[in-house]
Design brief:
Layout (H helix, E strand, L loop, with lengths): L1 H9 L2 E9 L4 E9 L2 E7 L2 H5 L15 H17 L1 H14 L1 E12 L4 H25 L1 E11 L4 E12 L1 H15 L1
Parallel strand pairs: 4-5
Antiparallel strand pairs: 1-2, 1-6, 2-3, 4-6
Helix pairs in contact: 4-6
Length: 184
């Protein structure tokens, strides 16, 4: 058992995250593969419970505004200011020991007016490319796939992000220790 545990800790493991956001669902899946065995775990959020079939109320329309985006960015900047040194140390360790095998980013959106999605498509492509380039500069991405689907007839917002990472479990435990130390 000790030998098997040692092999488990040093054998490279593939794992990933798949996030799906639409008007009616907000799903997050975490999955991993070790020795060719795939394990997929759904992570439930509050919004998942809101869309359960037991409730008769119609689903709320998702709110996506510049103010909510700005609030999230400001919160992230505050966190970075408070624990910048710890984050730099943790990210340098992550960059050395984590590789991103693949990232798949898809977004479909539509706005009220048919002209608005055409104009917004350029901004969405630019934002998505900037996000992927930032992740690539932090940890490196071997294969990137990005799709933007503007809808000129309906108002909607759907996003899907799927990643595949490769790391040894022993390094994951060390990173977890760094995160726990930073969160204090």
């Amino acid at each position: 058992i000790l030998l098997l545990t040692g092999v488990f800790l040093v054998f490279p493991m593939q794992f990933g995250v798949h996030y799906i956001k639409t008007a009616t669902k907000n799903k997050l899946y975490v999955y991993g593969s070790l020795f060719g065995i795939l394990i997929r775990i759904p992570i439930h959020t509050k919004k998942d419970k809101d869309f359960s079939p037991k409730k008769k109320a119609p689903p709320k329309e998702s709110v996506l505004s510049f103010d909510s985006f700005r609030k999230n960015v400001d919160t992230f900047c505050d966190i970075v200011k408070v624990s910048k040194r710890e984050l730099v140390d943790m990210l340098s360790y992550v960059r050395k020991h984590l590789s991103c095998k693949e990232m798949d980013f898809r977004i479909a959106f539509g706005l009220d007016d048919a002209a608005k999605p055409g104009i917004a498509t350029g901004a969405v492509w630019t934002s998505g490319t900037l996000l992927l380039k930032t992740i690539d500069s932090l940890i490196g991405i071997r294969k990137v796939h990005m799709d933007v689907f503007p809808d000129f007839n309906h108002k909607r917002f759907e996003i899907s992000v799927k990643t595949i990472f490769v790391m040894r479990p022993v390094h994951f435990l060390i990173i977890y220790k760094h995160i726990k130390k930073t969160a204090k």
